Amino acid sequence: MPQQEQERQSRVITRPSNREPRRFRVSVLNDDFTTFEFVIMVMMTVFNKSMAEAEDIAETTHIHQKSTVGVYSLDIAQSKVAKATEMARAENYPLRFEIQPE
Question: Sign of the C-alpha dihedral, residues 64, 41, 81, 20?
Fold first, then answer.
């Protein structure tokens, strides 16, 4: 390895990151086919919402076409959306979600 390359590599200092991981907002999107009851069940099962929270999310989604479900790290957000989407497809519902940086 050339001398300059070794010197440059020895000057690189890695510092542990004290920052929180980036957070992502998960939203559920309205459609005309997925039942209110199914949305509530998914909110409670996958996103660990109470009955009242799940009903509020379903109602808000119906009125505003979209509602925030929660804010998570990217891997958790993707995992929850994948599970919820899998459940919806198993029941032939077109329920969709979106993940956006906060």
Answer: positive
Q: Is 54 in contact with 44 (CB distance < 8 Å)?
A: yes
Question: How deeply is 11 buried, as exposed, middle or buried, from its count of CB atoms within 10 A (0-12, 13-18, 19+)?
Answer: exposed
| 3-state DSSP assignment of residue 2 | coil
Q: Token pair of 91, please?
A: 């029941």
The pTM is what?
0.80
Number of domains the chain is built from: 1
- 43-81 residue pLDDT tens: 999 999 999 999 999 999 999 999 999 999 999 999 999
9 in a structural domain: no
Distance of CA 39 to the CA centre of its chain: 15
